[in-house]
Amino acid sequence: MEPQRQTDGTQTFLAPEGLAGVRHRYAIGGSDGPAWRAWGGYPSEPHWKATFSLGPPTTLVAAFTASLISTEPLHRTVQDVPFHTRSHLYIVSTAAAKQPPSYSPAPPPVPPVAGRTR
């Protein structure tokens, strides 16, 4: 995400395809609105949004933002995803049962070649 600093006292970080973002209002001049806003989907009609006032510690906002850009896979079943958002999934895999480690026996020793000595 590349920041876009504007002259109105906001800084916006947008995903490359423009379908998610985080906006920080760093010039708080008499406004009651949120200091941080994050969304997924088009900014005008997001699928979800989160806002933070001036109260939460910046470490909380940083942890929330870091979780949004993490490449760590999120493990959950289809039943854990709300039905109305399942059409937005683009990677679904089935969970395989955890297999016990397999141990293969050591290969048998190679027989000596006839007619050779050391």
Any low-confidence stretches, pLDDT <50, length ≥5? Answer: none
Q: Strand-residue fraction? A: 25-35%
How many DSSP E strands? Answer: 5
| Average pLDDT level | 74
Query: Helix- and strand-based class?
Result: alpha+beta
Helix content: 10-25%
Supply the number of helical segments: 1
Strand arrangement within the widest β-sheet reads 1-2-3-4-5
Task: Kindly provide the radius of gyration, computed on alpha-carbon positions and rounded to a whole number of angstroms.
Answer: 26 Å
Largest sheet: 5 strands, antiparallel
Shape, principal axes of CA atoms: elongated
* H-E order: EEEEEH
Head-to-tail CA distance between termini: 67 Å
Tell me what you see in this structure:
The protein has 118 residues and is an alpha+beta fold. It is built from 1 helix and 5 strands; from the N terminus they run βββββα. It has one helix at residues 58-69, and strands at 2-5, 10-14, 20-25, 36-42, 45-52. It has a 5-stranded antiparallel sheet with strand order 1-2-3-4-5, with no helix packed on it. It is elongated, with a radius of gyration of 26 Å. The mean pLDDT is 74.
What descriptors fit this protein?
118 residues, 5-stranded antiparallel beta sheet, 1 helix, elongated, single chain, alpha+beta, 10% helix
Short recap of the structure:
Helices cover 10% and strands 25% of the residues. It is of the alpha+beta class and 118 residues long. Strands 1-2-3-4-5 form a five-stranded antiparallel β-sheet, with no helix packed on it.
